[in-house]
Write a structure and sequence with these properties.
The chain is an alpha+beta fold. Helices cover 30% and strands 21% of the residues. Mean pLDDT is 87; it is low at 221-236.
Length: 503
């Protein structure tokens, strides 16, 4: 069992962690009191969603009016009177808008512009992110004020923000997040950026797994047998390899670690992986399947009906699917809706189970391929894979991956509940527990020079601890003293396959 130590800080503070997802978002928090053992809690009440508790998250949806002002966010945007007003007044609906912020180096061939609503005129993706984070902060503040009487005043000026992002997001996307934090008013000046902490969703998920799965009493009684592997780390026989798969709405994040449970510590052993194959792309492929299947139908090929069916599939058939040998159904209409030629009977559309399974396959193959890539380069043999994230709730995804990993002698598990809270809860744990001591460089960094030898400063795959600096001496020649006053050069980033590129 993972035991957390009492908080050693001198004063009370509040940790707020935002998990802004492609489809759903949530907030977790922790009140740090000196001498008290920290407890991680989730914001479990939001406007128009007050009846939901426990693992509450809200849809990542916003409505903007024609003036560019926010009119509805989250669950409020799904209310019937809001949808009706939006249609009457021409509001712009944004869903999957986080994909506008995606890192450009990630493969995008399966993403079509039609899949992502265009941003309102005059609005940037960073401004949309700021509007959404402002709403999340307001909801978190209200929830904490209602749940902890007379607390807010004592922490409102002592808040640490932890913001998560996909593994594949790099410097540009991180700067956009920091800019959005300022625009949202979470901090009042750039000087307060020291209270903003950025974290990959993969590492946040690891912290969740440690406190809820890996270090649990039940799991600790299950031995992890790695005897079939040749142990390269003979001086660390108690180290075992784990991969955390964070399967979310937009991205699949994978991170590999070497773990020790006594005391609990982790080191990253392979560059983190990220692919755009989250659950929204299963829905996107379903929409394409429906368009093709119903293209000749006189009554049911209308784009609005197809979109309605895809939305129902996303909320029902996609979640329940578990057997390709059984048909799936999308209940979209009334008992009068019937077109036997297109498998429509009594208001529901029948789809072959294998067709549904095929919708999942690109995502499943993407996960397996990424895991195998990390197994190839990880310095510690992998004996455990943990599956978390909203997509992890899919029984078919779990069954397919389990069927792949178990024959390889790799233990495979997912949390029995609240897997969609992994990132937000894990982000708070990151701030409190800080379990990862080193990470692996995802690229090689260096400078251009005329030398015939390597000019690399940091090589891809090297371990990078938080306190270690990487430096290398170079020299340049100038013909005048005045030209020597200031010298600067660009740092070059190389993401190719060469182990030590020559620049």
């Amino acid at each position: 069992m993972f035991l957390r130590e009492p908080y050693k800080g001198p004063t009370r503070k509040l940790v707020l962690a935002f998990d802004v997802g492609t489809t759903f978002s949530g907030v977790s928090y922790c009140i740090l009191d000196p001498g008290e053992v920290p407890v991680i809690r989730g914001v479990a009440r939001y406007p128009a969603q007050e009846h939901v508790g426990g693992d509450s998250k809200i849809p990542s949806i916003l409505y903007y009016d024609l003036q560019g002002d926010v009119r509805a966010v989250g669950a409020e945007a799904l209310q019937e009177h809001v949808i009706e007003q939006a249609e009457d007044e021409g509001w712009v609906k944004l869903a999957w808008w986080k994909l506008h912020l995606r890192a450009k180096h990630l493969p995008l061939s399966h993403i079509r512009d039609v899949d992502i609503e265009p941003l309102p005129q005059g609005k940037s993706a960073v401004e949309v992110l700021a509007d959404f984070m402002r709403y999340l902060f307001q909801c978190a503040r209200t929830y904490i004020q209602e749940s902890h009487l007379n607390l807010w005043r004592s922490v409102e000026n002592s808040i640490e923000f932890v913001l998560t992002h996909p593994n594949g997001w790099e410097g540009q996307q991180q700067q956009q997040i920091k800019r959005a934090v300022e625009l949202a008013g979470l901090i009042s000046s750039r000087e307060e950026q020291s209270h903003v902490h950025l974290l990959t969703e993969g590492e946040a998920s690891l912290h969740f797994c440690v406190t809820n799965m890996i270090a649990s009493d039940t799991f600790s009684k299950t031995p992890l047998d790695v005897s079939d592997y040749s142990d390269d780390e003979e001086d660390q026989p108690d180290s075992q390899g784990v991969i955390v798969v964070d399967a979310g709405g937009g991205t699949i994040n994978l991170s590999a670690y070497s773990m020790k449970l006594s005391p609990t510590s982790f080191e990253e052993t392979a560059p983190a992986e990220c692919s755009l194959q989250g659950s929204v792309f299963v829905t996107s492929r379903a929409r394409t399947l429906l368009q093709k299947k119903l293209s000749g139908s006189k009554h049911y090929s209308d784009p609005k009906i197809v979109a309605q069916m895809a939305d129902i599939f996303d909320k029902s058939a996609k979640l329940w699917f578990h057997n390709p040998d059984e048909p799936s159904y999308i209940r979209f209409g009334t008992i009068r809706d019937k077109d036997l030629k297109y498998d429509i009977r009594s208001g529901q559309l029948k789809l072959a189970g294998q067709d549904i399974a095929d919708l999942f396959e690109p995502s499943i193959e993407g996960i397996i391929e990424a895991v195998e890539q990390q197994r190839r380069v990880a310095s510690t043999p992998i004996s455990l894979v943990c599956l978390v994230g909203g997509f992890a709730a899919s029984d078919w995804l779990f069954a397919r991956l389990q069927g792949y990993f178990l024959p390889l002698g790799i233990s495979f598990c997912r949390h029995d509940a609240h897997v969609n809270k992994a990132v937000a809860d894990g982000a708070v744990s990151f701030y409190i527990d800080h379990l990862v001591s080193s990470r692996v460089a995802r690229a090689t960094y260096g400078i251009e020079c005329n030398a015939l030898y390597s000019s690399s400063i940091l090589l891809k795959g090297n371990k990078v601890s938080e306190l270690r600096e990487f430096q290398r001496s170079f020299h340049t020649t100038r013909t005048s003293l005045a030209a020597c006053k200031i010298e600067s050069t660009d740092i070059v980033c190389y993401k190719g396959a060469l182990q030590e590129p020559q620049w």
